[in-house]
């Protein structure tokens, strides 16, 4: 499924998910350059794709339309099945929160939701990302 390009926050602000995902993925790439060799150019495309969904789910969860933790649990199971370290998923959520703070300082609740998602991934999977079964919960 193609990720959405925009989402409207509960406060009525339209967020450009394409731009936010691109900025966050650039920061993620700078922090984890080893992924360039492992995933090649497709890695950045998937980063943007997944980050657009993560941002959308977080906003929709603030509007009570989506269960953010349920979506995160699903994504974590998919990523772990592909040998993606779940600690990096948690870090990506932290980077997304920081990106929102820098680009949209007026959005105070969304970064908190993203950080709670990072904590959820860490608490359910452990920092090493080895307990995918715990994410079902």
User: Tell me about the biggest sheet?
Assistant: 2 strands, antiparallel
Number of strands: 2
Element string (H = helix, E = strand): EEHHHHHH
Strand order of the largest sheet: 1-2
On the 0-100 scale, what is the average pLDDT?
90
Kindly name the structural category: mainly alpha
> How many independent structural domains?
1
Query: Termini, distance in Å?
Result: 25 Å
The assembly state of the depicted protein chains is single chain
Computed CA radius of gyration, to the nearest angstrom: 14 Å
Instruction: Write down the overall geometry.
Output: globular
Short summary of the structure?
This protein is mainly alpha-helical and 137 residues long. The protein has helices at 17-31, 34-39, 41-62, 68-81, 86-103, 109-125, and strands at residues 6-8, 14-16.
Polypeptide structure, described:
- This protein has 137 residues and is mainly alpha-helical.
- It has one domain (15-136).
- Helices cover 67% and strands 4% of the residues.
- The protein has six helices and two strands, in the order ββαααααα.
- The chain has helices spanning 17-31, 34-39, 41-62, 68-81, 86-103, 109-125, and strands at 6-8, 14-16.
- A two-stranded antiparallel sheet has the order 1-2.
- A hairpin with a 5-residue loop joins β1 (6-8) and β2.
- α1 packs across α5 (86-103), α3 crosses α6 (109-125) and α5 (86-103) packs antiparallel against α6.
- The chain is globular and about 40 Å long.
- 31% of the residues are buried.
- Residues 127-137 have low confidence and may be disordered.
